[in-house]
Please model this.
Amino acid sequence: MADSLPRKVIPFQQVLDDLVDETRVFPAVNLHRFSDLNNADMQALKDIWKQVPADRRAALLEDLEELYDSDTLMSFDELARFALSDSNARVRAGALRLLWDYQGKDLIPAITQLLEKDPDEIVRALAASLMGQFIFLGELEQISASMLHAIEELLFQTVESGETKLVRRRALESLGYSSRDEVNTLIQNAFDSGDPEWMASALFAMGRSGDEKWASSVIEMLDHHERDLQIEAVRAAGALELDKARKPLLQMIRAGIDDADLRTTAAWSLSQIGGDQVGPALAKLLKKAEDEEEAEFIQTAIDNLEFQDGLDNFELMDFSPARRADFQLTTVDEEDEGAESWEPEVGQEEDEESEDES
Model:
């Protein structure tokens, strides 16, 4: 009975008082009150914002990002847009992360300003990454051709500029969504550079391109000894839905993967590629998940596989839905920075061989 009672609404003034009070930890129960702020509450927040220490402001945005990740019905767009002009770089970075799914073209001027002029490298890199979303929208003709062209030109200039490597790499990754011919040359040059960081960004951009011309480059990197390169190759194989990557990825997870990030990336990519052997393999991987977070991720991959299989069934009835686009905007950052193996079930190896022969 108690669970069905509505949650008590905390007065927003109380939330602001708690935010300003440095003598105690800001109550997590207050976080949901920052979602969908009305004009009056937003103005009240602006009025006291500078009274809140910078570290506390940054921590608030990071907590809101975590809340949004667990409940995407929350919307902190108004707060995030306001925080883009904060004097603290960590706050501006947090604001950009909160706007990861924002698709309003009215955001483009602010992101452009941050990319071109922000003094902090991480903020500029995040701005470059966020531009990828608008290139994606431009390819779908959801923003004007002139606006798309302006964003592409800015990112081309960034890649070729004297910017830091991190910012230039993020610009290249965003250009991965672009259908411009010049992008292929940039990707190939980055891949051929021999620099592991540039090669990782090239692989990420290949995945975003949706172009199977990169298939051989991606597949050859699936077993690379450099962890970041291997993860990006696995990610790209899934984004490109490469059938030829199915067998090596299945072999990889059956042999056991000690790295949790690589393990979950392989699971997701297999869910994008699909195939008869993928479902049982993911089910076994789910049973061997090391913690609840990994189990939830693998279950999401299983759900995605079932969704994709459903689309395939519709296609058999002459229905051709648009291919779902990869919309992952982050890769492994320089600044960010084992499962048990099992034997195949009886008959599983023979099934794989017959699948390959077909």
Confidence is low (pLDDT under 50) at residues 1-5, 314-358. Residues 41 and 214 are 50 Å apart (CA to CA).
